[in-house]
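Objective 1b: paired records.
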Amino acid sequence: MKKLLTISIAAYNQEKYIKQTLDSLIDETIIDELEIFVVDDGANDHTLEIAQQYAAKYPQSIFPIHKENGGYGSTVNYSIAHMSGKYFRMLDGDDWYETKEFCNFVLALKNTDADVVITPYYEGITGKMKCVRWDVPWGETIRIESMDARQTFGMWAITYKSDVIRKSGMVLPPMFYIDQIYNIVPFAYSETISFLNHAVYCYRTGQEGQSISRAARIRHTCDILNLCVWQCDFYEKLKSSCGKNLNYIASRIGGDAYQFSFNTLIMYPVSKDNLNRLIEFEKTISRLSPDIYNKAKEVGRWRFFIYLLRKTNYRLYWFMRFVPDGFLYKIWWLYKRHRLNSRNTLEKRH
């Protein structure tokens, strides 16, 4: 039976949360429309057994999968390889969907044929979550080429048509932060985007050991830099083949992946070696993709700082020795909170 929506749940050692995750997806009015892969990526707890209990109740909708540990991307790759739904979206094993809004979303999904579907999402710690929305034409479907190229969406907001993912041939590599690939690649093979005003995803933040933390980013710097190089290479190949939505993809990589790498590098202590590392990274990206190198000073939250750093021939870097350790990381989070509060204010006005 062909499903409307395939959901990929990455479930590595998530026995603490997986019941809440699965309960949030179950409603008798929509369960038959869903194909839910709970991918146990080599866990050593009871995640698989719990998922199997749910599968016994809903054998046509919930599919527990056990495989050897291969990293986050491998769980998504498995689900993509086996998906039968018209649409596809992701869900982390420690997050959940807002059930009522999810039901409304599934019902609305029946009436769209857009390549990409965007929905609002909740973000924060349990009990204090805030809704993230954008200034977009809710309820409408538009061509991606006409969209504001500065507008970016994370995996918590994105649902793709499965045929678009297949057409892209996307296979996520074995590294951290692969959601930055997932958030971009299918856009190169999409034409239309729909905005459904149903806040579905609940993204739990403030977790100990989350990959977005300062310590984790420093620990996985090589993955972060390699990810940016990967995306630059993807963009250049797309450009040479006259691919779609080049302006959007260049803005996304320059404003997100590049600046994520840049911001990670300036978290390191101020030193000549670390400055040289930063300069070498800049040279590498400038050589690989001049478009992405230039976009980094035009879009994104760090664009002005990058512009000034280059304009001063990196002399500005040395002033960072007077900045307290972790200060720029804190500024980044304050900026993110400001944007979140601004979105909520806009939402109340509307």
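Objective 1b, second protein:
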Amino acid sequence: MGTRSGQPNAALAMALDELGWSPKMLARKLNRVFGSGTAAESAPYHWRDAGSLPRSPLPAMTAHVLSQELGRVVSVTELWQGRAADSPTLLPADTNLSGHWTLQRLGQVVEDWVLGGLVDRRRFLAISGTGLTKIVGHYLDGTAGRGSLAPGAVDQRHADPLVDQVEQHVPLLQQLDDEHGGARHLPYVSAQFRAVGLLLHEGKHSVPSTIRLIRALAEIGQLAGWMAFDAADHGLAQRYFITALRAAHQINDLPLCAHVLADLSFQAASRGFPADAVTLGEAARRAADAAPAAVRASVLSRLAYAYTSAGRAIDFYRTRDAAREVIDRRGREEEPRWMYFLTDNHLDCQAGYALVQLGRSKQREGVTASRAFITQGTSLLESGAYTVPRGDPSQRRALFEGAWLALGYGARGELELACKVGQIAADRLDVVRSPRSVALLQQLAKDLRRRQRNPHVASFLPGLEQALIRYNSPVSPAR
């Protein structure tokens, strides 16, 4: 537990009172942000009431969480009255990422990644509010302008075997995420990202090869960001996304810029920051105005999800319908290779779990219409990937959608179906490492504990809880 001052911690008590939190709520927030087991639910009572000093780096983690929630800086010194030191390995996600949107500044950002390498022990803390919107502010206020390099400068006849190899490798990396989830192969994808960064850092490439390498860096950075997000390492995910956005900007790849902004929006919505999600999602929509139909539909679908996180049902339906209209009118135009995942069914399922999320939120508020949202959502998810066989490459999607469908059935009181689908999802835990999906199964277990008298729940729940215990020994992702 650490040392005791013998006096209550007034600064911590005031911060908790301002948020309306109990010490248990603080512990739950720490566990949500930094991972299960970070803090015991009883520990913050000792911090507040007896002045106990938690073990390092919990003082810095606590200051970070309170700063994020309060919207102002709460320093480690202020919170712990000078008895705790800040942690040099805990840094905000935007560390060394600000500055002008120039090719030279991109080179400096890439250099930081390269020098960090596999021995980087920094842990990056996710940012929100003005901290997040400021770092991508050029795309929020319309002042981003043009990058330094034009994609049209690439001569397809220009041969470069090394760059050819890099580009051919990218789709294979995407398959690793689809089949095994973000947490399993993030260290490998991170190494590939740094390898491309090292090539750029060394320089001496022709202009066409440089453009192609920057595009590969942006695409791998987006993928690594998505995988870090799936691994619940949100600060690291933001660093990858922001670096990918800077890279895509320099080669004026607006569709990829829009795609990355939509990822940041989706991440913010998933983390419970709806204002950030809507702001970023609307910026992504503007950036995608001239993008191919598949990109515009995907961006609109992410924005619709952001609206549900903010409880804006009318805006959800309007934006969801716009996404469907765009994809239904899609012609034969060339689409980016990284949009391979977008299908009509993908859009349906994303709308499905958005509606389940909205319905569950409204249900907690006692809104009568909540059941209609949940019913619509489960109907859409029933057409999804949750039943694909174990050999199918879409295992992570199947686990994620299955977990949402089980939550939807549970919220409707259809416990037999919730347990049946929950079992199908849980059976994928041995091949998929996706903390984002597992968090949904943990919520399912929590919901079902209140219904243990039901015979289906009584039969299913112990096995689910054992599967979750076995799962919770993850390998830390690379940074």
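Residues 474-479 have pLDDT under 50 and may be disordered. The beta strands are 90-92, 123-125.
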